[in-house]
Design a protein that fits this description.
With about 280 residues, the protein is α/β, with parallel strands linked by helices. The chain has helices at about 1-10, 15-30, 65-70, 115, 120-130, 150-160, 180-185, 205-210, 215-225, 250-275; strands at about 40-45, 60-65, 75, 85, 90-95, 105-110, 130-145, 190-200, 230-235. The protein is built from ten helices and nine strands.
Length: about 280
């Protein structure tokens, strides 16, 4: 699995990779800015700072052990002004399928391409559901196989079987389709709060051509929105059938005030019935 992780990280350093990271970073800043709580976690892809716009006091970056072995594990992309790369601190070594957190202990989890790299993406989602509090959020980004980039990737795989051609996207296994991911989330009692697609430029490798084709992004959002190269969604953990428990002294007082009037009314009706004369009708 380590060669897949390093391959994906190296691909992010290419022109299309930087184009994708820039779009995802903007979506992350928008999504997490107004999510409140105390504990948040980002799993994977340290080049993206998914929690920088969030105001939770406790934030952690977790990577798998294979990813930390690579020399690019701590690197973070510089800003638009050409600032030098800085190193981020990895707080935890954890796999998505076995998180070292107790049940219902996190308010926000960010998964940038984490499911694509997981050995069992469905088990990773179950683990996310376990550690999230009710009404907690999970933010997921991934590559869309139903896009121009996915089409070129499938064509390149076909050419490789014939002994020629190179892959456009990193060879990290099968990418998860957006509708399939929604079905998984629905089975785990998640409700998709918002979803968005992006990166509509064709699958080219040159930064020059990516820049010249920037006019395709607004057209893609309007005319073929679900065919973007990447998708981004925010889901909420719903727990149905919950009831808030009130203090015992309050429940006892409510029961006492509810039973006394009923007893008094019943006793009053009995006394009234005894005191009323019996009226007999004449035949």
């Amino acid at each position: 699995m380590s060669h897949q992780i390093i391959g994906l990280h190296h691909w992010f350093d290419s022109p299309p990779g930087r184009y994708l990271l820039e779009w995802e970073q903007a979506r992350l800043d928008e999504a997490v800015a107004d999510i409140f709580g105390y504990h948040s976690l980002q799993l994977g892809i340290p080049m993206l700072d998914g929690l920088r716009a969030n105001r939770m006091p406790y934030q952690w970056l977790a990577l798998g052990q294979d990813a930390v072995r690579g020399p690019i594990a701590y690197a973070q992309a510089g800003d638009d002004e050409g600032a030098p790369l800085r190193r981020r601190t990895v707080d935890l070594l954890a796999e998505p399928v076995a998180l070292p957190f107790s049940d219902a202990s996190l308010d926000l989890i960010v998964l940038p391409h984490t499911l694509e790299l997981s050995i069992d993406p469905h088990a990773a989602l179950r683990e996310v559901e376990r550690v999230l509090v009710p009404e907690g959020r999970v933010v997921i980004s991934g590559l869309n196989p139903a896009s121009l980039w996915g089409l070129r990737q499938r064509r390149a795989r076909l050419y490789q079987r014939l002994g020629r051609g190179n892959l456009y996207l990193p060879d990290v296994g099968e990418f998860i389709a957006y509708r399939r991911l929604r079905d998984w989330l629905q089975l785990l009692s998640f409700e998709v709060e918002s979803a968005r697609f992006g990166c509509y430029r064709p699958a080219v490798r040159s930064a020059h051509w990516l820049e010249r084709l920037s006019w395709m992004d607004p057209l893609g959002e309007r005319w073929w929105p679900i065919l973007g190269a990447a998708y981004f969604l925010v889901a909420v953990k719903r727990v149905y059938g919950m009831r808030l428990l009130e203090p015992a002294w309050r429940n006892n007082r409510q029961r006492a005030t509810a039973t006394v009037p009923v007893a008094n009314r019943a006793r009053g009706r009995a006394r009234t019935a005894q005191s009323m004369p019996v009226r007999r009708e004449q035949p």
